[in-house]
Amino acid sequence: MIPGDAGYNDFWQVMMVTVPKGYVANTIASFSDIQAAGYPITPTNTLVNCPVVPAGSTASLRIGGESPGLTQGWYRDQVVNYFNFSEATLTLANGAIPTAPIYVTFNVNPDQPNGGPASGFEREPGSMQTHNVAASIPGQPGYSPLWAVGIYDDADFSSVATLTTAMAATLLAPGPLVNCPIVSVQ
Fold first, then answer.
1. Distance CA 110, CA 138 (A)
2. For residues 144 and 161, is the Cβ–Cβ distance under 8 A?
3. Which of 14, 113, 151, 179 is found 20 to 30 A from 88 (Cα to Cα)?
4. Structurally, how many domains does the chain consist of?
5. Considering the domain boundaries, does residue 157 fall inside one?
6. Spatial distance between the Cα atoms of 167 and 99, rounded to a whole number of angstroms
7. Is residue 174 located within the same domain as residue 104?
């Protein structure tokens, strides 16, 4: 699937397709070709984070020396471009994509006029520094680039600096799930 298709998701479950000896790369360019050829398909529990993007897209900041380039693949006989974020090994957890908590606050609380994401993340004066707190980073147990966002009251901004203080802040609402890989740790 590609963006705009019903059910599209950046996270893909890897399917192992067994092809015969002598298979020539790129002779199969769609799922229907695989089915027509009768090649066995074996589901795995491995997930990859591969958002499909327009050709020429960039995401140059990557953690751990990961390649910033686009990968090309096939979708219904058409070439598609996608990023391959591999900062974490992901596996299905009870049939679902694993998530990790992140706590954020906005300049204006979501229940107020012009509040929530449209108002921007609250920052320290004169700085880009937010008090958004991720529960884990790449390489730590529980890390996932798919964040379960918890929105805390902007009145608690000055008291939030750690996971403990973020969890103690007044949680206003659960936010969306967002695909937001960590690309730098300072």
1. 29
2. no
3. 151
4. 2
5. yes
6. 17
7. yes
At 18, is the secondary structure helix, strand, or coil?
Answer: coil
Separation between Cα atoms, residue 12 and residue 89, nearest integer Å = 13
Structural domain including 84 reads 11-91
pLDDT in tens, the chain (186 residues): 889 999 999 999 999 999 999 999 999 999 999 999 999 999 999 999 999 999 999 988 888 788 888 999 999 889 999 999 988 889 998 888 999 999 999 999 999 999 999 999 999 999 999 999 999 999 999 999 999 999 999 999 999 999 999 999 999 988 899 999 998 887
Q: What is the pTM of this model?
A: 0.84
Residue 168 lies in a domain: yes
The answer to the question of residue 3 being in a domain is: no
Query: Of the candidates 27, 57, 91, which is a domain's last residue?
Result: 91
- How far apart CA 53 and CA 72 sit, in angstroms, is 10
**Do 105 and 44 share a domain, yes or no?**
no
CA distance linking residue 107 with residue 186, whole number of Å: 24
Last residue of a domain, one of 91, 118, 137: 91
